[in-house]
């Protein structure tokens, strides 16, 4: 995880070993037992889900948790369910399950599509949606999609469950509102409707992980007279958290989308972004990527609305 | 941290190893079980050399602790050629010079074998995508991709 390394090396020092430091290993048999363990070890324990980001960091000794609580056998947290227009995804659902879920392909097809962009097949076999959100890397697929779809995240502790919207969950790179005794157990999303088109675009560096530089995701709804009644744009790679362009798009609702409208969207969105330079790309380059990915995404989302229209 | 007995099932055979929870599956497969066909390269999930099948799906054995794999069938490269007879995929890699030093080959075989089982007729782009998690420093990938075709 050299990307994470480059971000954390200032905090953790230079990696000298490729084997994790000793830890106390706990494998709870139920969510209740997990919550008790989190209470007992609050602050000293780390939850081990898919481990595809955590274990590399432990191998590098950037992280040395005193205790690891392995939730991989809690099959209660591995599910995708739908109740009317509401979709619920258990935190332990693996990326490959997101990719292939018939339920999601029908209700929220942007999720399987985005999940296909994560790492590679071996990573997707193990990585989980909850782990990905709790890891809170602002340049990764699922945090952007969770924000785009305004996901409601269930944060559970021995004291009870609270719900945080994706927009308030992410505080910074690898920082979330999760307290040491809390675990992310599920997320709720609204299914996309027939009137809504979506698009997901990512520019990634070549290589084993295919890390994204910039991610753009769009949901767009047209009414019967082809006016835009909903436009939501979420972006990754352009700030310390994924961002949603809310203010920027408000004045652009109610119009028929054409070339001028598209230009206005791109201007409004891009002019509010302040991406920082990093070792992978300059701020200017990231903005250029936004300006080239966004029009593609807007067109694709619009086409999806219209092809849905044709099917009805 | 104290060690404990960990029961593993690798290539259909039971192994009981006494090891610490922090021991990676890749190291247990090689050091405790003596199955050295699984190679260890970067040890942080980037190179793909240590790819094995966990529950039938490709996974990095350097990104999972052996203690997590109790009760989970594990398949390594040793399960591939039976009685010294190469599989079609192995034979194709051999014939197309799809390997040189061979370090990455076990991971590539495990990855592609499981991919081809699900997608028997991939396009070249799909093969490239399927191989994107496996680094090879010798072949430049061209001969590996030719072998799949």
Question: What is the overall number of helices of chain A?
Answer: 12
Strand order of the largest sheet of chain B: 2-1-5-3-4
Helix-strand pattern of chain A: HEHEHEEEHHHHHHEEHEEEEEEEHH
CATH class of the largest domain in chain A: Alpha Beta
Low-confidence stretches of chain A: 1-15
CATH domain class of the largest domain in chain B: Alpha Beta
| Architecture per CATH nomenclature, i.e. the level-2 architecture of the largest domain in chain B | Roll
- Residue stretches of chain B low in confidence (pLDDT < 50, at least 5 long) are none
Rg of chain A is 20 Å
Order of helices and strands of chain B: EEHEEEHHHH
Tally of structural domains of chain B: 2
* Largest sheet entry of chain B: 5 strands, mixed
How is this structure best described in words?
Chain A has helices at 2-12, 31-40, 54-59, 95-100, 102-107, 110-115, 121-126, 129-135, 141-148, 166-169, 259-272, 283-311; strands at 24-26, 45-48, 67-70, 80-83, 86-90, 152-157, 160-165, 170-172, 175-176, 183-190, 196-204, 212-222, 228-236, 243-244. Chain A has 312 residues and is an alpha+beta fold. Chain A starts with a helix and ends with a helix. Chain B has 149 residues and is of the alpha+beta class. Chain B has two domains: 4-78, Roll (Ubiquitin-like (UB roll)), CATH 3.10.20; 88-148, DNA polymerase, domain 1, CATH 1.10.150. Chain B has a five-stranded mixed beta sheet, sandwiched between helices. In chain B, strand 3 (51-54) and strand 4 (57-60) form a beta hairpin. In chain B, helix 2 crosses helix 5 (142-148). The N and C termini of chain B lie far apart (49 Å). The model of chain B has no long low-confidence stretch (mean pLDDT 93). At the A-B interface, helix 3 and helix 7 of A face strand 4 and helix 3 of B.
Features:
heterodimer, A: 312 residues, alpha+beta, Uridine Diphospho-n-acetylenolpyruvylglucosamine Reductase, domain 2, Uridine Diphospho-n-acetylenolpyruvylglucosamine Reductase, domain 3, Enolase-like, domain 1, five-stranded antiparallel sheet, four-stranded antiparallel sheet, 12 helices, globular, B: 149 residues, Ubiquitin-like (UB roll), DNA polymerase, domain 1, five-stranded mixed sheet, 17% strand
């Amino acid at each position: 995880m050299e990307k994470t390394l480059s971000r954390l090396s200032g905090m953790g020092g230079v990696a000298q070993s490729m084997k994790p430091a000793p830890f106390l290993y706990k494998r709870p048999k139920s969510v209740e037992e997990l919550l008790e363990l989190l209470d007992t070890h609050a602050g000293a324990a780390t939850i081990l889900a898919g481990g595809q980001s955590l274990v590399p960091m432990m191998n590098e000794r950037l992280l040395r948790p005193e205790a690891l609580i392995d939730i991989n056998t809690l099959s209660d947290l591995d599910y995708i369910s739908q109740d009317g227009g509401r979709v619920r995804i258990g935190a332990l659902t693996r990326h490959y399950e997101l990719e292939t879920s018939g339920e999601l392909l029908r209700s929220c097809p942007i999720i399987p599509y985005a999940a296909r962009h994560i790492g590679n097949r071996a990573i997707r076999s193990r990585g989980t949606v909850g782990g990905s959100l709790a890891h809170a890397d602002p340049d990764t697929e699922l945090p952007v999609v969770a924000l785009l779809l305004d996901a409601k995240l269930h944060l559970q502790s021995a004291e009870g469950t609270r719900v945080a919207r994706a927009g308030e969950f992410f505080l910074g790179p690898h920082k979330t509102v999760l307290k040491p005794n809390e675990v992310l157990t599920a997320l709720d999303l609204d299914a996309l409707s027939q009137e809504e088109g979506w698009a997901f675009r990512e520019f990634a560096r070549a290589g084993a992980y295919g890390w994204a530089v910039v991610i753009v995701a769009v949901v767009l709804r047209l009414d019967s007279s082809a006016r835009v009644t909903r436009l939501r744009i979420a972006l990754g790679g352009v700030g310390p958290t994924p961002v949603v362009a809310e203010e920027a798009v408000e004045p652009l609702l109610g119009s028929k989308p054409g070339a001028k409208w598209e230009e206005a969207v791109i201007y409004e969105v891009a002019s509010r972004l302040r991406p920082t330079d990093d070792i992978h790309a300059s701020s200017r380059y990231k903005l250029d990527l936004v300006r080239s990915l966004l029009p593609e995404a807007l067109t694709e989302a619009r086409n999806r609305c219209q092809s849905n229209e044709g099917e009805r | 941290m104290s060690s404990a007995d960990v029961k593993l099932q690798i290539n259909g055979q039971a192994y009981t190893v006494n090891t610490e929870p922090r021991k990676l599956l890749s190291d247990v497969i090689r050091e405790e079980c003596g199955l050295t066909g699984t190679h260890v390269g970067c040890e942080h999930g980037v190179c793909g050399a240590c790819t094995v099948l966990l529950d039938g799906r490709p996974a990095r054995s350097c990104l999972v602790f052996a203690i997590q794999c109790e009760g989970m069938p594990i398949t390594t490269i040793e399960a591939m050629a039976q009685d010294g007879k190469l599989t079609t995929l192995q034979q194709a890699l051999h014939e197309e010079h799809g390997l040189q030093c061979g370090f990455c080959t076990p991971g590539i075989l495990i990855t592609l074998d499981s991919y081809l089982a699900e997608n028997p007729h991939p396009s070249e782009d799909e093969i490239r995508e399927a191989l994107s998690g496996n680094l090879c420093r010798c072949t430049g990938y061209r001969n590996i991709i030719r072998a799949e075709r």
